[in-house]
Amino acid sequence: MKHIVKAAAIAGAMFASGASAQEMVFTSWGGTTQDAQDKNWAQPFSAATGTSIVMDGPTDYGKIKAMVEAGATTWDVVDVEFDWAIQAGQQGLLEPLDFSVIDKATLDPRFVSDYAVGSFYYSFVLGYNPANFAGDKPSTLADLFDTAKFPGKRTFYKWSAPGVIEAALLADGVTPEELYPLDLDRAFAKLDTIKGDIIWWEGGAQSQQLLASGEAPIGFFWNGRIAALQADGMDVGVSWDQNITAADALVVPKGTKNKDAAMAYIAHATSAEAQAAFATETGYAPINTGSAALMDEAIRATLPDQQTAVQINADMSWWAEHRDEIGNRWYAWQAQ
Amino acid sequence: MSITLAPKRRGSGLGLAMPAILLLLAFFVVPVALLLLRSVTEPEPGLHNYRTLIGSATYAKVFFNTFFVAGVVTLVTVLVAFPVAWALAIMPQRWASVIFAVILLSMWTNLLARTYAWMVLLQQTGLINRSLMALGIIDQPLQLTNNLIGVTIGMVYIMLPFMILPLLGVIRKIDPAILQAAALCGASKGQALFRVLLPLAAPGIASGGLMVFVMSLGYFVTPALLGGTANMMLAEMIAQQVQSLVNWGMGGAAAFILLIVTLGLYAVQLRFFEPKPEVR
């Protein structure tokens, strides 16, 4: 028994000394997105500063809250959904960002708040498998909800988040100007009309599988996942009409012991170069206004920031305020 | 589980069990207790989380789904596992070892990988539907995923080893001469099965069935991937509450109810089905 205790003490001491060297933890959602963040943000940052970055994941809001409340924050920078970032900032779960380190002036103001800056932004777009639609091709959100004209299963994002509710309202004829505050009754009534035809996707890889296999020949996807299928040579139809933007955010959970390193890392990750490199690899749009000039023309053309004319911005502040209310209703509706 | 109890020896062996007990205490009992505490303290002290859970039609449906799916899975698992266990018990030892290894092998494969494999097989454009359509047996693809069928197939497959192992333990101990004796006494095959074999195997069915049922109650990955949201089970609801809505109170309350039900079932098992210590 004594030996075990001693061994544990030694291991503990080794771990502690390891942590006191410059090292920080970056947590994101895993998969190809986090791989791209590692390659284009973390590794160059480590090479330039000597601060090594440990990758962790997937992002888990329950865990962040538990860490902060227990005073044991081990995640230094986390990639989260933007509406959650706003809500968490209001609830005191996050450190305010240090804008003397992070250059606010170069960032797209849509994705900057006191507690969060954009990580990248993306659009929900209508995607379809042309093999399943011989005649007319779906092109509007109304088509997405029209099972008579475009029969077959459709796939939507499973979790309560900005995007699908907006799409239901727009498909039902609500104009972008009067979209907010969201009319939830109307949105759920619209969703009810196709409920039996919905297959939910939980993650990007699953959404690609459903579309490529024809299991769900039409759906509402993150644009980067469609771009990746196209890059693989698959024939995938996409309509940007009324594409809905949402963003991920970089935040620093309250109580981190590596606050300076965390701020420096965010400053690096949101720099024009890092954002351009990440966007090139993933098909998601940069939130640094200087990135576009650094990117290849052909790739730039596929990004959501080229589609602003037909674009609708999900209202993150409105979502932050109503997140719990919508979430509870959303999951209850799904289970019915 | 059907453990043959050895005659009690002096010296309780508690010391040897200490590392395991401490580990469980630190990494299981304490965190669970803390979670339960949150269910009555968040967002404010009181039992309102439990009131919400019990008072809502949605959660009632989720509770019903949980027990219904676990029940269906247990039943189908017993029906599939019993003939397998019986065959394993009576076939030549060499063949039995090979088949046994195959069954165990499936347990060592990653759960997520196995569930995704079923998705690929079962979906409308999957191997099973395509083959059936190519053979002209069906015209329209069968809906085998995103519903109860998908969940049942996926979960039965995962639970089978947990049913076969205890069943095999019990069946191997049944003396084949007993069945011969039954036949000699004029019992038909059906009578030998229902009045001799099944009663003797009952402890194995009960312990395996309970294990499968309890494991199924808390299952998360397979129902989430192979079932639709209409079959949502409790574990998934807990994950939504904690991960997406950051509502530890509700998640904790649901987890506590699940724990109470599970412990209650275990108590029933101990009371009625645990085999009596063998007299040697």
TrEMBL record, chain A:
InterPro entries: SBP (IPR006059)
Family stated for the protein in its record: Belongs to the bacterial solute-binding protein 1 family.
GO molecular function, one term: thiamine binding
Cell compartments where the protein resides: Periplasm
GO cellular component, one term: outer membrane-bounded periplasmic space
Domain of life: Bacteria
Keyword terms, alphabetized: Periplasm, Signal, Transport
Protein name as it appears in the record: Spermidine/putrescine ABC transporter periplasmic substrate-binding protein
GO BP terms: thiamine transport
Automatic annotation (TrEMBL), chain B:
Residues annotated as domain ABC transmembrane type-1: 63-269
CDD domains (alphabetical): TM_PBP2
UniProt keyword annotation of Transmembrane helix present: yes
Membrane topology: Multi-pass membrane protein
Superkingdom per UniProt: Bacteria
Annotated keywords: Cell membrane, Membrane, Transmembrane, Transmembrane helix, Transport
Subcellular locations according to the entry: Cell membrane
Short name of any one Pfam family annotated for the protein: BPD_transp_1
PANTHER family: ABC TRANSPORTER PERMEASE PROTEIN, INNER MEMBRANE ABC TRANSPORTER PERMEASE PROTEIN YDCU-RELATED-RELATED
Entry protein name: Spermidine/putrescine transport system permease protein PotB
Organism, scientific name: Pseudogemmobacter humi
